[in-house]
Write a structure and sequence with these properties.
Blueprint lengths: L12 H18 L2 H25 L5 H31 L1 H6 L7 H27 L7 H29 L2 H4 L4 H9 L15 H6 L1 H13 L5 H27 L2
């Protein structure tokens, strides 16, 4: 009918989020990233457990119980590396530019990527727990287990936001993932996740004890035993601070994008 006003077609934000999240998750399954997220913790657990178990258990330490928390933390770093790579590829391919030209809320693309990244992180936690249970790792109670998983995913979310922001800012897939490789190796290897702080030279022990990976591993170790050590609160502060800082940087990066 002439003179009629065209009807604007509106897709609810929830449906947009579901579609974008599903796209990223399907790509992760298709490209093998999600299966890798599940199996990688198993490989790293065995690589550390086999050579170190005898010397660590000589003093009466249950090494599976001691080691598993840092394997979970390392899984969160690998989830972040995947997040940085995915965000960089979306930027490089022009996907972000296309979404900004469509009636999509500015926060939705990142929210969808975060949802998919947390699925990847959850797969890593599941893989770590499976191999840990096979080698004797156990939770003391259900409450501690729930907080264990929640804290691990919160730690993962914090570094995923930072990696995602880096990927969007650079738009270079070769940088999105590799930028986290050296920091995660340094923080994991120089932490109390693999061996106690006393195994390190005295001059570096303060750093080893207090850096975020050591605190997170200690917190998860305590939660697995049904305890709530001070490291739980310290890790929560680290997580909150990282989320605030990385979210602010993410908003700044989005605003400066053409």
């Amino acid at each position: 009918m002439s003179g009629a006003t065209p009807v604007e077609f509106h897709i609810p934000a929830a449906m947009q989020w579901k579609a974008l999240s599903g796209r990223t998750i399907r790509a992760a399954v298709r490209e093998g990233d999600l299966p890798f997220g599940f199996f990688a913790p198993m490989i790293f657990f065995i690589c550390f457990y086999v050579p170190l178990r005898r010397s660590m258990e000589f003093g009466g330490l249950d090494y599976a119980q001691y080691l598993l928390p840092v394997i979970v933390v390392q899984g969160m770093f690998f989830a972040a590396m995947s997040a940085g790579d995915r965000a960089a590829r979306d930027t490089f391919s022009g996907m972000g530019t296309r979404l900004r030209s469509m009636p999509v809320k500015p926060w939705l693309p990142m929210a969808a990527r975060m949802s998919a990244n947390l699925v990847r992180a959850l797969a890593s936690v599941a893989g770590a727990l499976v191999i840990g249970y096979l080698f004797g790792f156990r939770f003391h109670d259900l409450g501690g287990a729930v907080v264990f998983v929640a804290l691990a995913l919160a730690f993962g979310a914090a570094i995923v936001i930072g990696a995602d922001t880096l990927g969007v800012a650079t738009g270079k897939p070769e940088i999105g993932a590799s930028a986290l490789l050296a920091p995660q190796l340094l923080l994991v290897m120089m932490s109390t996740g693999l061996v106690p702080a006393e195994a390190f030279p005295g001059w570096i022990q303060p750093f080893v004890r207090n850096q975020p990976v050591s605190q997170a591993a200690s917190a998860l170790r305590g939660l697995a035993e049904g305890e709530y050590p001070a490291a739980v609160a310290i890790t929560a502060v680290w997580v909150a601070a990282l989320i605030i800082v990385f979210t602010a940087v993410s908003v700044l990066v989005e605003r400066r994008r053409p």
